[in-house]
Prior knowledge:
Layout: H1 14-18, E1 28-30, H2 47-52, E2 54-59, E3 62-63, E4 67-69, E5 76-77, H3 79-91, E6 94-99, H4 105-110, E7 116-117, H5 125-128, E8 131-146, E9 163-167, H6 171-185, E10 192-196, H7 199-207, E11 213-217, H8 218-227, E12 234-251, H9 255-270, H10 273-280, E13 292-293
Parallel strand pairs: 2-6, 2-7, 9-10, 9-11
Antiparallel strand pairs: 1-6, 3-4, 4-5, 7-12, 8-11, 8-12, 8-13
Helix pairs in contact: 3-9, 3-10
Amino acid sequence: MSNRTRTTGIFATTILVAGLALAGCAGTTSEPDAAGADAPLFDQLPSAIQESGVIRVGSDIAYAPMEYYDTDGTTVLGFDKELTDLLAEQLGVNFEWNNAVFDSLITQLTSERIDIAISGMSDTAERQQQIDFVDYYQAGAMLLVKKGNPEGLTSIADLCGLTVAVQRGTTQADYAQTQSDQCVADGDSAIELLQFDRETEAMLQVKNGRAASGLQDYPVAAYNARESGGGEDFEVVGEQIEAGPLGIGVGKQNTELRDALQQALQAIIDDGSYQELIDDYQTPLGAIESATINGGS
């Protein structure tokens, strides 16, 4: 990773996450350096958020390096968390992080239990029917396999007849199902797809040999191959699958907040702090050049 302080790995967060409440309870806030009306883009925020001083974030906080808990089980770490710290400097309000199951985030947005969702969520045309996205990162799926690649996998097409573990409700689950259908159409065996609420649960299946592979976003797979078990648990094979934007999810009724977030993201791209964050996390393929809305397809 970088010289930033890290925990002992993503598996260490599993027990800590299990006991935490879902979004809507007290969360962890990030304190902006320039608070309130003195911040450059404070006036662009909806009046309700200006008054409360808080943007409520929903996230599945078990997806290192994008977001995960420190060993205290309370402090949120990761790329997405540090991104909100930068956005807070532009907007002048706090970001309150609340833990939730990934598959519930869109429902929580549409029911206004949270203001935004930041959880390594792919911006897709299907999801755009329900929510809007401010795109902040570029990522495709990668195959994560047990160290040594015992099945000799080189691409998603090699998964026919094998067991694959993924997080429920993700684009990776969709990719695996699409490939399984293609396997059957080609006269081969279907993929046995194991789906879990937490990415950590899916990874455990690969580590223990119960699944031949997992599918994860590029930054997550690269991190886990580098960090888990001191780099001895996993490796990444093949090329990125269908690289596309990750987005900050915002309810369609909340266009004012969406546009303020876009302006704040563009500001940190322009001042170079966004690129510094990309460099710190050693994920050069993830960088974007401009903040777009609903850029996924």
